[in-house]
Amino acid sequence: MMRYAVLYASSTGNTKAVAEAVAAALPAGEVRLEAIGPDTPVPAEETVFVGFWTDKGLCPQDVQSLLQKLGGRRVALFGTAGFGVSQAYFDAIAQRTEALLPEDCTLLGSWMCQGRMPAAVRRRYEGMAHEHPDDTKIAGFLANFDHALSHPDEQDLARAAEFARDIVNRQ
Length: 171
What we know:
Protein name: Flavodoxin
Strand order of the largest sheet: 2-1-3-4-5
Mean pLDDT: 94
Shape: elongated
GO molecular function: electron transfer activity; FMN binding; oxidoreductase activity, acting on NAD(P)H
Number of strands: 5
Domain Flavodoxin-like: 6-164
CATH architecture of the largest domain: 3-Layer(aba) Sandwich
CATH superfamily of the largest domain: Flavodoxin domain
Number of helices: 6
Structural class: alpha/beta
Largest sheet: 5 strands, parallel
Low-confidence stretches: none
Distance between the termini: 18 Å
């Protein structure tokens, strides 16, 4: 049996890239990497890294369902969020996601980074800007979208790998 499971949900490929970096940082031959789906079984591994994308400040339903079944496991969370580069925003997402874990889970840590968003999001922001040209908040949305285009970048992936190595080294 593998010692580590790296399970992830990825809508745009961002979280998949981070999951691959996490898995590559774990001991060779001791890790299983798998996408989360609606019927993902509870992993046999005691240490589970769970990756997710963010929608309206929370992980998707498939991830929520899986997290609630991870009783007795050691769990590390990682995720991507298109909106915002604020650590406080990332921390709030992590805290909401951590709250889904059963009480008998051991939370090993959480890590988040920005991820690029689909082009449809920019088109929606552009439409909003056209309707409300003086709204500086919408201009901020557009600037954030453009900033997110390069993420997760190599530095983000290196930090994700460091997060995974730190988890292993603490066990």
